[in-house]
Amino acid sequence: MTISPAVISSRPSGFFAKAHSAFGVLLLLELCAQFYFIAAAVIPIAAPLTIAVTPDPSINTWKSTYDTFSALHGVNGTLLISATILVLILLSFAARHPWKTTLLTALLFFLVVLQFALALIGFQHSELAPIVGLHGLNALLLVALALRLTWQR
Ligand code: HEM
Predict the structure, then answer these.
(1) Cβ(79)–Cβ(130) under 8 Å?
(2) 71 CA to middle of ligand 1, Å?
(3) pTM for the whole thing?
(4) CA 23 to centroid of chain Cα atoms
(5) Position with higher pLDDT, 152 vs 98
(6) First and final CA of the chain: distance in angstroms?
(7) Pocket lining: 109 vs ligand 1, CB cutoff 6 Å
(8) In sequence order, which residues have a C-beta less than 8 Å from that of residue 150 and are 6 or more positions away?
(9) Residue of the nearest CA to atom 24 in ligand 1?
């Protein structure tokens, strides 16, 4: 009995397809880093805020920790993640992946732009906190879509 090659593997092979998979994994690592950076930035500030009524002299330590990790979150989110997704779009064309893959990767880029916009709204309008909170949910969408794209390929 012979098994059809299509049953054994329907995944595209070749340099660009492999590079696409590698960049998909890189994107997932960068997205995980976003969760890590923001937790490291916010938890040391948020936890004491719920118990300290008077300003604590160690606020300067919190501030510098926050500045460092939120800056890492900002650079990773605006530069590294966006650049990785743009490379993924190019690799998707080069590997001749189906249009659906390329469109879903473009959607990933759109979600990052939305993520940035939600953060900017938060910087300027504290009264819009319920909308700004969508930054957290959109992050989950980004991870889910990146997982789907990487898993598929
Ligand atoms: C995983 C995907 C994520 C991406 C791509 C992302 C991206 C961004 C970007 C581009 C900014 C604006 C940075 C700046 O202009 O300085 C930002 C800010 C911020 N994000 Fe995210 N983010 C993600 C996940 C999260 C999560 C899960 C949280 C928390 C629930 C979060 C909380 C924040 C906060 C608090 C800021 C403001 C930081 C500051 O003070 O500069 N982000 N994010």
Answers:
(1) no
(2) 9
(3) 0.86
(4) 13
(5) 98
(6) 28
(7) no
(8) 21, 24, 25, 27, 28
(9) 139
